Amino acid sequence: MVKEIEKAGITIVQMANLIPVAKTVGSNRMVPTISIPYPLGHPETTKEEQWKLRYHRVGVALESLETDIQEQTVFKVKI
Q1: Exposure check for the chain: N or C terminus, fewer CB within 10 A?
Q2: If the chain, 79 residues long, is cut into consecutive pieces of 10 residues, what is the mean pLDDT of each piece?
Q3: pLDDT at site 79
Q4: Which of 33, 16, 56, 12 is nearest to 2 (CA)?
């Protein structure tokens, strides 16, 4: 799906916990997530911790859309 959207001229970032799979299917911009059932948080953490994690990772994804890349890139996350 990612490749088809990019063929239409729309820049896209894939947030995924299985980065090797995202690379294999041809994603160009990738941001790591936490897990399959809880990609941007975990219900056992506090709401504040979940919000910080989500805010950071979505921010990284938005910044990746502005970044000029020449090859597949995995953007680093701090949280």
Answers
A1: N
A2: 89 96 95 94 92 97 96 96
A3: 87
A4: 12
**pLDDT at residue number 58:** 97
- Joined together, the tokens standing for residue 43 give 């219900």
Alpha carbons 74 and 32: distance in angstroms, whole number: 8
Buried b (16+ CB within 10 A) or exposed e, 21-49: ebeeeebbbbbbbbeeeebbbeeeeeeee
Q: How many CB atoms lie within 10 A of CB 12?
A: 17
Please, what is the Cα angle at 68 between 76 and 57, to 5 degrees? 30
